[in-house]
Design a protein that fits this description.
13 strands; five-stranded antiparallel beta sheet
């Protein structure tokens, strides 16, 4: 039974929040410092007042079944405060596409981390600015290279899950929007 470490980062301080970003990582690895470094690297893209809280603990989950098996603790968590322009459109931003080499059910396993809201000055005529894309891409590449996070392919029917090592990170020039699931 292989476990994955679940890390739930909480977003606060902007319209439409709180929200969460969920990261998974290999067993016996403390992902908190690497995830905190990722958010520190992108903090200038988001409106001042927004904060991310990275806990020093989380659940462990059996990757193949999805069953909760316990908890883990780490040491590198804390809070990161955004430092960008305070003007933003709630729920609008960008995303990171995490790539893996794993094929499951005839498809390549991929993951996404949505990053919203992005400050309005990070857009240029409907696209993201090249500086914003570069900042996010560099942060994503660095996080992917640590090996501290992976994509969890969830089990279907209670079996068949897999922890998939991230082999690439792409931040496309595509503005995204998040709709509330509370509707």
């Amino acid at each position: 039974m292989a476990n994955t470490q679940k890390l739930v980062v909480v977003w606060n301080g902007a319209a439409g929040l709180p929200g969460v970003s969920v990261f998974y990582g290999p067993p016996a690895t403390d992902p908190t410092g690497s995830v905190k470094a990722f958010f520190t690297a992108v903090q200038s893209l988001f409106p001042a007042g927004l904060t991310w809280t990275i806990p020093n603990s989380g659940d462990t989950v059996d990757v193949s079944t999805g069953v909760l098996t316990g908890e883990w603790t780490g040491t590198g968590g804390g809070s990161v405060s955004a430092s960008g322009s305070g003007v933003y459109a709630a729920g609008c931003g960008m995303y990171v596409q995490w790539g893996t080499a794993i094929i499951a059910n005839g498809r390549r396993v991929k993951g996404r981390t949505f990053l919203a809201p992005v400050s309005n000055d990070k857009y240029d005529n409907g696209d993201l600015t090249s500086a914003a894309l570069t900042t996010a891409q560099n942060a994503a590449n660095t996080l992917a290279a640590t090996g501290d996070v992976w994509v969890w392919h969830r089990p279907q029917g209670g079996t068949g899950g897999n922890g998939c090592v991230i082999t690439s990170a792409t931040v496309p020039n595509q503005v995204t929007s998040l709709a509330s699931r509370r509707r």
